[in-house]
Write the structure tokens for this entry.
Amino acid sequence: MNATTGCVAPVMLRQISFFRMLSDEDLQKVARYTREFHVTKGQVLFNRGDPVHGFHFVIEGQIKLAITSPQGNEKVVEVINPMQTFGEAVMLLERPYPVFAQAMLDSRLLHITQNIVTDLIEHDPAFSKKLLAGMAMRLHGLIQDVEAYSLRSSTERVIGYLLQSCGDMQTGTPLEFDLPMSKQTIASRLNLTPETLSRVFAELSNAGLIHVHGKHVKLFDPKQLAAYGY
């Protein structure tokens, strides 16, 4: 990892949701315990079992959190996009990382050390509530993922992902966008094999609902796609 020299601007820290209510003085203090660094695509930030010394905030790029089975199969637990944080909960537990983190794109991040977060928790109840609220939202999202993997068919998972990616399932007009990650990563994120993902894409294409070329996807009728299979 390549650390950036110089201090991190407090204004950058205000982009982190649970830092927004802090005073300028407190933000200046956090900045002294923060470093900015860059990682290149494919670079590992930390491995499963590594000690935790703080949490991360993604400024630019994309980071995947994943687990590798003893057989070598990879399961993507979460994909972290710009303006999102990761590592807060395990930092507070003071346990090693349960996943590994790898850059999916060239990325720019902040690392905020545990000492300053602990100090804020001890002296600022409002900060503590905001931090807990953020972690509760993350947990809620993971529970929704587990529900989707357990109760929805492979086709329903893929449709849900496509509609979420385009951001609009109410329109009947075509929408086009690029997949934000590789198909292999999407399959892992949806708890599917790459072969199953390809099969579902083919099924939806044959039904006249989508067209996929590389990473580019066209949804001919998002509203009709949302109703497919239900």
About this structure: Residues 2-151 form a domain with the Jelly Rolls fold (CATH 2.60.120.10). The chain has two domains: 2-151, 154-227.
